[in-house]
Amino acid sequence: VQLVESGGGSVQAGGSLNFSCEVSGYPHRSYCMGWFRQVPGEEREAVAAIYTAASDSYYADFVKGRFTISRDNAKNTLFLDMNNLEPEDTAMYYCAADTVRWTCSWFKTDYPHWGQGTQVTVS
């Protein structure tokens, strides 16, 4: 299973960025995908997760109302739209896939597959 991220970059506070994450090597559609972020010296934390349907999505409190997670199951691609960005959102962002469980976990150790990471800088 391979996850390849694209997007991200630098933006001023209040701006917007978006990511995509394409999954290959896994033929099924029913699995959880998530976005995590990590600041140097800190633990990797969950940002948002989504199972197969958009209605089955979850958000960390610090991004609710600002970030939107979505997926295109036909294209096996995950998206993250980030609005009203704050300097505190500066981090390396990773997409992840959990091809084991039938629900979304909030724990990074439950995700066996990871993207390469993409830097977001908000000034």
Structural account:
The protein has 123 residues and is mostly beta strands. It is built from no helices and eleven strands. The protein has strands spanning 2-7, 9-11, 17-24, 32-38, 45-50, 57-59, 67-72, 77-82, 91-98, 113-114, 118-122. Strands 2, 4, 5, 6, 9, 10 and 11 form a seven-stranded mixed sheet that branches. Strands 1-3-8-7 form a four-stranded antiparallel sheet, with no helix packed on it. A hairpin with a 6-residue loop joins strand 4 and strand 5 (45-50). It is globular. The protein starts with a strand and ends with a strand. The mean pLDDT is 93.
Q: What are the main properties of this structure?
A:
mainly beta, 123 residues, four-stranded antiparallel beta sheet
In short:
With 123 residues, the chain is mostly beta strands. The protein has strands at residues 2-7, 9-11, 17-24, 32-38, 45-50, 57-59, 67-72, 77-82, 91-98, 113-114, 118-122. The protein is built from no helices and 11 strands.
Low-confidence stretches: none
Structural class call reads mainly beta
Record field, number of beta strands: 11
Q: State the helical fraction.
A: under 10%
Sheet bearing the most strands, described? 7 strands, mixed
Q: In percent, how much strand structure appears in the residues?
A: over 45%
Cα-to-Cα separation, first versus last residue: 34 Å
Give the topology string: H per helix, E per strand: EEEEEEEEEEE
Shape summary: globular
Q: Radius of gyration from the CA trace? A: 13 Å
Number of DSSP helices? Answer: 0
Q: Mean of the pLDDT scores? A: 93
